[in-house]
């Protein structure tokens, strides 16, 4: 996009320009005046960083079986009797470091939820734009499908979709594509919100003169939809996406917890909680509790961020 | 050479179960490089006529029910969607009334200008940018190169209308439709914009349809004038002849209701009595009959034909009108002779 206008000025210069504009923007000001939002942003940032470079952050390479020692099995957190600082949050039944497992699990959880949200944004925004712009029977069709979709709880959609593919492709293939399947399942349960919001704003924006002007200039419809209308209806999408991200993280954890999610070979936070759940009553509480806390703080931070964005990006609250 | 030939154009709008005849049996033609002024009050069908030529009447609720719009020999009303899209912005361009809302607030001026060039002429982004700078210079925007990266909110109304004009003429269209191009602007800016329009028209050899309710604008720019009332063209002819000798009582009333600097007399202005007809419930006969001072029984029962009056002129009136000044202002004086009443 920016390649269009790079002539005459250096890319770096433009980049620093953009950074200065961002720091000077209303949104950045709002962030600086809201300690909670800033804190949430930092927490989410740390999570993302840890998930992006797990091998640098995690104390143990949990997938390297040769490093595991059964002597470390069920080692409690470091501050308890029998604990070791090598296993800050304790170790599981195979002597695997819980902290490292959480960090690697975070990677799966975040990847799945971000991808799922991205996919449902893509589906929802596109359908919403089309419905709002064309109106008529296309609009009715899309919005009725959305209504039907809403009658299925997200969990049910995911279970249905998962079961359907499991019986269609067999256990083996299903295992291989488990992550893609869970992403699609979560995305399918989330697109309606975007579609409804975008459709509503598109109805308004398409009546603006600049859209008429764009049509008068003979611009193709797709171009008008995505270049002229989309940027004008995108703000609420950001807000919904942030809040939906938290929902997607929970949904992924839930699906993994009930065994419909990612395979145990790539444990997500939900898988860790499920596995740890079995030891909860026998005293090894740290196996389930710490992944649970990790999930809790992540979702809390994302939700706080979403709340903040909803207020900050809403011009009627200024 | 005729570039645009509109004949028998009728547009209807369905609104709350009623049908509104927004434009009815409108015909006019335009030679290359010529300027046609379309004047009329709000709701007279000027803008709908213009949108019909671009085939951009919102459908539904609107529908073009009859007519032909021949542009360089091709009927725009029967053209495929893709073909009409290639003509819009390239061969026929349009600018309209409110420059404050006509530019997309989230895209830079440069982006909006270059995309026209890229879509229609297939220009490389860099070439398009250079062209865009030239276009901004052409419409008199200073420091064109640096203003290209700015967003519309930094531009005043007059500046935005210049940008709109630059976009409209970017592909050197054969026909420019200007729908109330200066209505939202203050008077000094109006004059500048009109000058830019007429200069560009001369340079590019464009034909222009100038839609306005401002007779002064028409007098200054248009070669021919069409006066619209109640969805119809009620009088049409060369500007000078029409202004000097209006035939249809509505035109007469219109000209009588504005101050004229080219006439030394200090007569009182005479408003047209009554108010324009509701688009939904227009009278059966002549649309203007309820307000006309010269109304005859035939006017209320029969729609007058659009017929030639003198050289190169048409009017929609039952009367062979030949009016003196007294005839206009003296109520009931029968200077007129009903043709067939």
Strand order of the largest sheet of chain B: 6-7-8-3-9-10-12-11
Secondary structure: number of strands of chain B: 12
Report on the biggest sheet of chain A: none
Radius of gyration of chain A: 23 Å
Give the amount of beta strand of chain A, in percent.
under 5%
Helix run count of chain B: 12
Helix/strand order of chain B: EEEHEEHEHHHHEHEHEEHHHEEH
User: In this structure, how is the largest beta sheet of chain B organized?
Assistant: 8 strands, mixed
Order of SSEs of chain A: HHHHHHHHHHHHH
How far the N terminus sits from the C terminus of chain B, by CA atoms, comes to 39 Å
Number of helices of chain A: 13
The residue ranges of chain B in which pLDDT falls below 50 over 5 or more consecutive positions are: 324-341
In helices, the fraction of residues of chain A equals over 70%
Oligomer: heterodimer
Q: Which pair of chains forms the biggest interface, and how many residues does each contribute?
A: A-B, 22 and 34 residues
Shape of chain B: globular
| Number of separate strands of chain A | 0
């Amino acid at each position: 996009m920016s390649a269009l206008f790079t002539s005459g000025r250096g890319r770096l210069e433009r980049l620093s320009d953009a950074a200065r504009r961002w720091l000077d923007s209303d949104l950045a000001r709002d962030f600086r005046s809201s300690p909670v939002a800033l804190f949430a942003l930092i927490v989410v940032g740390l999570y993302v960083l840890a998930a992006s470079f797990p091998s640098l952050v995690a104390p143990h390479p949990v997938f390297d079986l040769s490093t595991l020692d059964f002597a470390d099995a069920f080692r409690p957190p470091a501050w308890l009797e029998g604990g070791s600082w090598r296993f800050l949050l304790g170790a599981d039944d195979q002597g695997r470091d819980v902290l490292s497992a959480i960090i690697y699990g975070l990677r799966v959880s975040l990847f799945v939820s971000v991808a799922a949200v991205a996919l449902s944004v893509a589906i929802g925004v596109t359908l919403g734009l089309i419905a709002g712009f064309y109106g008529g029977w296309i609009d009715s069709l899309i919005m009725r499908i959305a209504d039907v979709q809403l009658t299925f709880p997200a969990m049910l959609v995911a279970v249905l979709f998962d079961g359907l593919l499991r019986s269609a492709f067999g256990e083996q293939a299903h295992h291989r594509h488990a992550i893609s399947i869970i992403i699609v399942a979560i995305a399918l349960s989330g697109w309606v919100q975007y579609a409804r919001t975008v459709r509503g704003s598109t109805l308004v924006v398409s009546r603006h003169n600049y859209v008429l002007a764009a049509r008068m200039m003979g611009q193709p419809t797709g171009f008008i939809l995505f270049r002229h209308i989309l940027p004008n209806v995108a703000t609420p999408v950001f807000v919904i996406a942030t809040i939906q991200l938290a929902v997607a993280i929970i949904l992924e954890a839930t699906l993994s917890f009930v065994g419909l999610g990612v395979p145990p070979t790539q444990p997500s936070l939900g898988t860790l909680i499920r596995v740890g759940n079995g030891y909860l009553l026998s005293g090894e509480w740290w196996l389930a509790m710490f992944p649970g806390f990790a999930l809790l703080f992540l979702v809390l931070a994302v939700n706080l961020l979403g709340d903040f964005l909803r207020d900050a990006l809403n011009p009627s609250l200024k | 050479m005729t570039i645009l030939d509109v004949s028998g154009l009728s547009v209807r709008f369905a609104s709350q179960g009623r049908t509104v005849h927004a434009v009815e049996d409108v015909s006019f033609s335009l030679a290359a490089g010529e300027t046609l002024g379309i004047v009329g009050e709000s709701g007279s069908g000027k803008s709908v006529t213009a949108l019909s030529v671009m085939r951009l009447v919102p459908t539904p609720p609107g529908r073009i029910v009859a007519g032909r719009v021949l542009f360089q020999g091709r009927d725009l009303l029967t053209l495929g969607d893709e073909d009409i899209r290639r003509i819009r912005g390239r061969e026929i361009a349009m600018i309209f009334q409110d420059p404050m809302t006509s530019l997309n607030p989230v895209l830079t001026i440069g982006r909006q200008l270059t995309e026209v060039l890229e879509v229609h002429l297939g220009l490389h982004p860099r070439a398009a940018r250079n062209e865009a700078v030239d276009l901004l210079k052409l419409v008199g925007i200073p420091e064109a190169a640096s203003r290209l990266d700015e967003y519309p909110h930094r531009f005043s109304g007059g500046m935005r209308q210049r940008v709109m004009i630059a976009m409209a003429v970017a592909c050197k269209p054969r026909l420019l439709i200007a729908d109330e191009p200066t209505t939202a602007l203050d008077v000094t800016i109006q004059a500048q914009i009109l000058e830019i329009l007429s200069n560009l028209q001369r340079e590019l050899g464009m034909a222009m349809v100038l839609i306005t309710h401002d007779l002064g604008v028409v007098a200054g720019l248009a070669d021919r004038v069409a006066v619209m009332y109640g969805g119809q063209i009620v009088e049409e002819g060369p500007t000078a002849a029409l202004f000097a000798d209006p035939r249809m009582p509505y035109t007469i009333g219109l000209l009588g209701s504005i101050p004229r600097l080219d006439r030394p007399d200090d007569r009182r202005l005479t408003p047209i009595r009554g108010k324009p007809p509701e688009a939904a419930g227009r009278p059966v006969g002549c649309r203007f009959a309820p307000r006309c001072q010269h109304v005859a029984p035939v006017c209320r029962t029969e729609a007058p034909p659009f017929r030639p009056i003198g050289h190169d002129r048409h009017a929609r009136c039952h009367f062979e009108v030949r009016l003196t000044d007294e005839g206009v202002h003296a109520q009931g004086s029968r200077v007129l002779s009903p043709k067939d009443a």
